[in-house]
Specification:
With about 250 residues, the chain is an alpha+beta fold. It folds into two domains: about 150 residues, Beta Polymerase, domain 2; about 90 residues, no CATH class. Helix 8 packs antiparallel against helix 9. It is globular and about 55 Å long.
Length: about 250
């Protein structure tokens, strides 16, 4: 099954499970931005619902996602109520969320448990920005009609929070974190939210020559043509220090 076929299949199943409760399904993330990597990228989805799901709907939804995620692409999905979108406040509240981090939690639930895991997620503002820039409507009204505008200051705070997290964990997850830092640099420089791959490719013409080799190696790792173990951690660290120098973000650890 191709990635497009997988997306179509997921869309139809979500419509079947949620029925009239579902108002729309939207694709964001790397697939929408054009940087999807079959061996490592998630399918990033946002669902819009007209009212709170029943626990039975949430259970059926969870059962479906547990069967479908990682076959072969991981699914990350959040459902937001229409009321939340109409009265948008950062950080926004989701009704239901799934990513692979949640798998062990959901797998332990029994039929007597609640499958609704509502919470607050600052990253929803970044998802909103991607939706407005490049999001795809899989079902429901167009993005511009379904989603509100966002505050650019809220977005900057969200992106900088992610950048701080990446700086803290760059030696543990050098590819993901380095790519996020590079695309943050492009956002600050041009106001464009791009894919991780685009951010890295853009940076090649911006960095001093001494950093190009490590960025090219990061790109190869991301594409699966180079092993992460071949990366020099000290070069990764130096790249992260350079990005801090050329951006206005100065983390306070």
């Amino acid at each position: 099954m191709s990635v497009i076929q997988k997306i179509d299949y997921i869309t139809e199943e979500l419509k079947n499970i949620l029925g009239d409760t579902l108002k729309g399904i939207y694709l964001h993330g790397s697939m929408a931005l054009g940087g999807f990597q079959h061996h490592r990228s998630d399918l990033d989805l946002i669902g819009v619902i007209t009212k709170r799901m029943t626990n039975e709907q949430a259970k059926q939804l969870t059962d479906f996602i547990l069967r479908t995620s990682n076959q072969p692409f991981p699914i990350e999905i959040s459902f937001l109520q229409v009321e939340t979108l109409e009265k948008w406040i950062h950080p926004a509240t989701y009704e239901y969320h799934y990513s692979e981090i949640w798998r062990p939690i959901f797998e332990e639930k029994t039929v007597l448990d609640s499958f609704l895991n509502s919470g607050v997620d600052p990253d929803l503002t970044a998802h909103l920005a991607v939706l407005h820039q490049a999001g795809l409507t899989l079902f429901g009204p167009p993005v511009k009609d379904a989603f509100p505008s966002y505050n650019s200051e809220d977005l900057l705070i969200t992106l900088q929070s992610e950048m701080k997290d990446c700086l803290l964990h760059i030696t543990e997850d050098p590819i993901y974190c380095s790519l996020n830092l590079l695309r943050y640099w492009r956002y600050e420089h041009e106001g464009i939210i791009c894919s991780k791959l685009e951010g890295a490719e853009w940076s090649l013409n911006k960095v001093p020559a001494s950093y190009r080799q490590i960025i090219l190696q990061i790109i190869k790792c991301y594409k699966g043509t180079l092993k992460e173990s071949d990366l020099e951690r000290e070069n990764i660290k130096q790249l992260s220090l350079f990005i801090q120098e050329v951006t206005t973000f100065k983390p306070a650890f």
